[in-house]
């Protein structure tokens, strides 16, 4: 059994977690998340410099609370891990330097974790999580990707968003409708009062070089623009904006696009298990629609626990534990951080085996 102390500071959540595993059983001993939503809501989105400063301010207290709640001393920890890519560079730097400093102080191995692999690993805390190969729909504020996961975490990206990710589209449409930040929960709440069939919004596609479409890829910028044009037209007519109906129609179309392309991809690649992770994976409409439509194709759906859909350190710890389970390489204490790195290059973060 390994115990991991994990740090997540890739965007606007300051989080520290202590996790362990025994075979295929993954356990969370503590998972402290300090949200910065209040700090950024007045700006309608994340301000990178403000986020980095808040991480620097909050991280010592979050670390102390995580250790206290877990009742595990840092001397008992086997490995210290932190998110090193992708994310906001200033934010990543705060968590990475903290983790590597602790490794030096306590003579612990360091593991740099890919943020998207962290989201993928959140499913490990679910019961009966699937064995590879399977298809993962990772849908969050900054990423919408379809990733085939094979043995020993061999990952192949099969689809992605080319402009706004689904979470970004929720935030922008929420702001357009005068709703609070973040837009996802705000839209989901008010959409319950609306008619999801009221407006016929577009399901945008990405063109390929042969004159067709990239069938597993996503584009939400056009959908966002369609909502803007709809609101402008209603304003021009002097009518009241039917916010619940627009929110419900927007939420339905986003869910339909995600579900249709995910199931199409799973079918084409002969995969009978779909994993759904990331912040938008908490959306109730998406969860219900995915289960319903996948069932028609005899595909089983595995949903990340709702409390682990948004950014948190437990998922980073789970990714580290999975790496240790298969004797993955240790990261160098000189490993830097990167704002971007494709998920299929996650193995480049490791260079030698851990000393146990």
Protein architecture, described:
It is a single chain. It is built from 10 helices and 10 strands. The chain has 356 residues and is α/β, with parallel strands linked by helices. The longest helix has 26 residues.
List keywords for this structure.
single chain, 356 residues, alpha/beta, 5-stranded mixed sheet, 40% helix
Number of strands: 10
**String of helices and strands:** EEEHHEHEHEEEHHHHEHEH
State the major sheet: 5 strands, mixed
* Percentage of β-strand residues: 15-25%
* Approximate helicity band: 25-40%
Count the helices. How many? 10
Query: What value does the Rg take, in angstroms?
Result: 21 Å
Q: What is the overall pLDDT average?
A: 94
Q: State the end-to-end CA separation.
A: 11 Å
Low-pLDDT regions: none
Assign the structural class, choosing from mainly alpha, mainly beta, alpha/beta, alpha+beta, or little secondary structure. alpha/beta
What coarse outline follows from CA principal-axis ratios?
globular
Going across the biggest sheet, name each strand in turn.
Answer: 3-2-1-4-5
Explain the layout of strands and helices.
Elements: E1 2-8, E2 13-22, E3 25-35, H1 37-41, H2 48-70, E4 79-85, H3 89-106, E5 110-114, H4 115-121, E6 134-139, E7 144-149, E8 155-160, H5 166-176, H6 183-191, H7 221-236, H8 243-268, E9 273-277, H9 284-296, E10 300-303, H10 313-325
Parallel strand pairs: 1-4, 4-5, 6-9, 9-10
Antiparallel strand pairs: 1-2, 2-3, 6-7, 7-8
